[in-house]
């Protein structure tokens, strides 16, 4: 027995204990007074005044753009929204389609119309969007004769009387 005790040579237990007088850190047992944790006050810095009224955080309204694919239901249109997303493996952009039900109060949209979906409060179990008409885009190359007259202000050669 004395052989194993001599091999281990364990120090006495009193030398392992830490005395409370030797540790003088402010983090004793994980607690610190709040006055030590607060930021120091600067004479240059101005105090920040908090607003008296509570304002909710501003969120962007979600709006999507898509094409009407079904308009048979009353006051409801099905709109297909197409987005581009990277393929998980090949990283190529692929088209992802999703259909949304949107509220059409006047039944003004037909199949193929381009509409914008505005987020609203839920109207029914599946409808939380309102369909809004998107203005038509004018192409620069398609200029009719009447528009040509109005832009230039002079008649074209083909419309002038020959003398």
TrEMBL record:
GO terms for molecular function: rRNA binding; structural constituent of ribosome. The keyword RNA-binding applies. GO terms for biological process: translation. One of its GO terms (cellular component) is chloroplast. The keyword Phosphoprotein does not apply. SUPFAM superfamilies: Nucleic acid-binding proteins. It is found in: Plastid, Chloroplast. Keywords: Chloroplast, Plastid, Ribonucleoprotein, Ribosomal protein, RNA-binding, rRNA-binding, Transit peptide. Gene3D superfamilies: Nucleic acid-binding proteins. Belongs to the universal ribosomal protein uS17 family. This is Small ribosomal subunit protein uS17c. It comes from Rhamnella rubrinervis.
């Amino acid at each position: 027995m004395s052989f194993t005790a001599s091999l281990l040579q364990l120090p006495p237990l009193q030398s392992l204990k830490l005395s409370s007088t030797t540790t003088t850190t402010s983090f004793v047992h994980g607690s610190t007074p709040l006055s030590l944790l607060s930021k120091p006050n600067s004479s240059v810095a101005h105090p920040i005044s908090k607003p008296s009224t509570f304002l909710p955080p501003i969120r962007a309204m979600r709006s999507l753009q898509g094409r009407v694919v079904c308009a048979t239901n009353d006051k409801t249109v099905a709109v297909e929204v197409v987005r581009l997303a990277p393929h998980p493996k090949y990283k190529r952009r692929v088209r992802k389609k999703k259909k949304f039900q949107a509220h059409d109060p006047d039944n003004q949209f037909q199949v193929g119309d381009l509409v914008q979906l505005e987020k609203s409060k839920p109207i029914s179990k599946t409808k939380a969007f309102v369909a809004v008409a998107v203005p038509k885009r004018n192409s620069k190359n398609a200029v009719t004769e009447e528009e040509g007259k109005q832009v230039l202000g002079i008649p074209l050669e083909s419309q002038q009387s020959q003398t």
